[in-house]
């Protein structure tokens, strides 16, 4: 079957670094997306990995290991506005995104 | 990035009435559009996938006669919730994807969502 595993909730301090891990199982694989979702809003795109390795984009970086079915999102220099849910969504053989419940990230001053 | 709009952003309707939600891709041609619903603190649930000019493919457990989807053009898909009931109250989100091989082909661009409340 298809499955996504992320921590339910994480807490970090403003200015710090946090890593959100994701393991997945899908029928086929066409890349993995990370989305940010603030409460009551639609998801917004953060990153896309299709090859193994690290993709860096400003304060956010995302890593993928296809052989391990593993990805992580790294957030640096945390800001209060980063408090949100972070969704790991791999794309299966039909290019459909597989969604988990996401990780709620709480940033404390 | 590409822009997807949804209308209305919020709607309140009475039980038994029908509500139409529009999803538009504003600056690219969306060959495929997806409709999701999301309950509070829950993950996105895919309801259906629609390809322009063809019938939508519904996920298991989603009533196609209740949730009517029309994807009549490359920039517009509509979701009509027919004979709405309070349990249909939810956050409905659409996303759009461009043609395979094109610049907008690998990413789903999300609309801002529609909050439906059925009283």
What layout of secondary structure does this protein have?
The complex is a heterodimer of chains A (109) and B (119).
Chain A: E1 3-5, E2 9-13, E3 18-25, E4 32-37, E5 44-49, E6 53-57, E7 60-65, E8 70-75, E9 84-90, E10 103-108
Parallel strand pairs in A: 2-10
Antiparallel strand pairs in A: 1-3, 3-8, 4-5, 4-9, 6-7, 7-8, 9-10
Chain B: E1 4-7, E2 10-13, E3 19-25, E4 30-38, E5 45-51, E6 57-58, E7 67-73, E8 76-81, E9 90-98, E10 109-110, E11 114-118
Parallel strand pairs in B: 2-11
Antiparallel strand pairs in B: 1-3, 3-8, 4-5, 4-9, 5-6, 7-8, 9-10, 9-11
Structural summary, described in words:
The complex is a heterodimer of chains A (109) and B (119). Chain A is mostly beta strands. In chain A, 0% of the residues lie in helices and 53% in strands. Chain A has no helices and ten strands. Chain A has strands at residues 3-5, 9-13, 18-25, 32-37, 44-49, 53-57, 60-65, 70-75, 84-90, 103-108. A five-stranded antiparallel β-sheet of chain A has the order 1-3-8-7-6, with no helix packed on it. The radius of gyration of chain A is 13 Å and the shape is globular. Chain A starts with a strand and ends with a strand. The relative contact order of chain A is 0.35. The mean pLDDT of chain A is 93. By secondary structure, chain B is an all-beta fold. In chain B, 0% of the residues lie in helices and 52% in strands. Chain B contains no helices and eleven strands. In chain B, the strands form two sheets. In chain B, strands 2, 4, 5, 6, 9, 10 and 11 form a seven-stranded mixed β-sheet that branches. A four-stranded antiparallel β-sheet of chain B has the order 1-3-8-7, with no helix packed on it. Chain B is globular and about 40 Å long. The mean pLDDT of chain B is 89. The chains are: A mainly beta (109), B mainly beta (119). Chains A and B meet through strand 5 of A and strand 5, strand 9 and strand 10 of B.
């Amino acid at each position: 079957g298809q499955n996504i595993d992320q921590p339910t909730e994480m807490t970090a301090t403003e200015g710090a670094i946090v890593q959100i891990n994701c393991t997945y199982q899908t029928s086929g694989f066409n890349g993995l997306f990370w989305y940010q979702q603030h409460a009551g809003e639609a998801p917004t795109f953060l990153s896309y990995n299709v090859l193994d390795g690290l993709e860096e984009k400003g304060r956010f970086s995302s890593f993928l290991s296809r052989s391990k079915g593993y990805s992580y999102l790294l957030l640096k220099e945390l800001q209060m506005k980063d408090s949100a849910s972070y969704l790991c969504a791999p794309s299966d053989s039909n290019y459909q995104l597989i969604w988990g419940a996401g990780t709620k990230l709480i940033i404390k001053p | 990035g590409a822009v997807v709009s949804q209308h209305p952003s919020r709607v309140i309707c009475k039980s038994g009435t029908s509500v139409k939600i529009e999803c538009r891709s504003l600056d690219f041609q969306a060959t495929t559009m997806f409709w999701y619903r999301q309950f509070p603190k829950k993950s996105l649930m895919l309801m259906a996938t629609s390809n322009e000019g063809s019938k939508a493919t519904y996920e298991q457990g989603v009533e196609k006669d209740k949730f009517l989807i029309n994807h009549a053009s490359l920039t517009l898909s509509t979701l009509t919730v027919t004979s709405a009931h309070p349990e249909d109250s939810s956050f409905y989100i659409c996303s759009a994807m461009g043609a395979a091989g094109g610049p907008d082909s690998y990413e789903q661009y999300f609309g801002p969502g529609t909050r439906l409340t059925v009283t």
